[in-house]
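Milestone 3.1: sequence recovery, worked example.
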């Protein structure tokens, strides 16, 4: 009977364990060396625990940087009839009004960089009506009726680079077709330019807080870019042709994400995609701005944080969309 050797292994097994141990030791040494490289490259006089000063200059941006400037600022919304008191305030307390305007729109780094107007239409704007800029199809537009256009004029004097956006809750009774809506918008925009000297930068041709009409958005963009009638001069026409289109401004729907991704003609037509509050929407891979409007009433004006995000990456956020709103 042969005795059984207990506790011994074949030589090949021992060699395998030995080589495994050597390999693991080499990997550990390599990892330690890798982790110590930053410390080794520090100046001899600097200790690892020393504080390092990092200087950030928001104005020092490369000319080809299109994705680094995610947050664009905040904006003021004039609408729902709540801004009507501003003109009374301006008349009765001009010094305080001027100080308020300089606080919001003045300085080298203004707090508010966008002013958004809900077009007056003589109809309900959720908390009240505003006077229509054009009450009949044959009437000449008159933007001095709408306090929002006057507010923009005052803000533009302080910050000529202020961006101006218009949209509508409703339309005057006579403007029932898209052709008539275009006429109303165009007449009002040109009247503002001729009266106050500024051209609107962005237009949402659709209805506020409703599912967007994608075909109309593309058609409106085409008309704006190619329109060459009814202008007083080439400068006026060229400025008008540069107006950019905002799509949607819907609330709780989130319906345009897939179309913005798959429809190149829509992306070419639309400069900014807007939403109100935080609707769940499909992740959007696009180079367009994302405007988010969150309703916050503040005294006699309604303030909405406004953020523009030019990005070629995926726009996403917990449960909904990245909290970015121009």
């Amino acid at each position: 009977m042969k005795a059984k050797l207990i506790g011994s292994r074949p030589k090949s097994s021992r060699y395998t364990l030995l080589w495994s141990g050597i390999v693991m030791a080499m990997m550990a040494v390599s990892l330690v060396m890798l982790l110590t490289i930053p410390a080794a490259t520090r100046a001899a006089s600097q200790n690892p625990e020393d504080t390092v000063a990092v200087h950030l200059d928001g104005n020092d941006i490369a000319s080809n940087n299109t994705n680094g400037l995610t947050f664009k600022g905040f904006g003021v919304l004039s609408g729902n009839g709540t801004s009507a008191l501003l003109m009374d305030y301006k008349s009765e307390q001009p010094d305080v009004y001027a100080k308020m305007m300089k606080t919001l729109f003045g300085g080298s780094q203004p707090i508010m960089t966008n002013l958004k107007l809900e077009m007056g239409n003589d109809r309900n704007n959720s908390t009240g009506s505003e006077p229509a800029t054009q009450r009949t199809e044959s009437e000449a537009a008159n933007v001095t009726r709408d306090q929002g256009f006057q507010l923009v004029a005052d803000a533009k004097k302080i910050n000529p680079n202020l961006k101006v956006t218009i949209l509508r809750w409703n339309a005057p009774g006579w403007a029932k077709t898209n052709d008539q809506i275009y006429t109303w918008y165009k007449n009002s925009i040109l009247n503002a330019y001729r009266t106050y000297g500024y051209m609107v930068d962005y237009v949402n041709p659709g209805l506020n807080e409703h599912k967007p009409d994608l075909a109309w958005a593309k058609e409106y963009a085409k008309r704006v870019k190619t329109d060459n009638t009814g202008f007083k001069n080439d400068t006026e026409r060229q400025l008008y042709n540069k107006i950019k289109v905002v799509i949607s401004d819907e609330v709780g729907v989130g319906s345009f994400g897939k179309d913005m991704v798959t429809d190149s003609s829509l992306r070419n037509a639309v400069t900014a995609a807007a939403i109100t509050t935080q609707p769940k929407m499909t992740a959007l891979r696009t180079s367009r701005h994302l405007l988010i409007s969150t309703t916050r009433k503040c005294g006699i004006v309604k303030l909405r944080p406004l953020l523009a995000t030019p990005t070629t990456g995926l726009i996403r956020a917990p449960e909904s969309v990245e909290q970015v709103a121009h």
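The chain has nine helices and eleven strands. The first strand starts at residue 74 and ends at 78.
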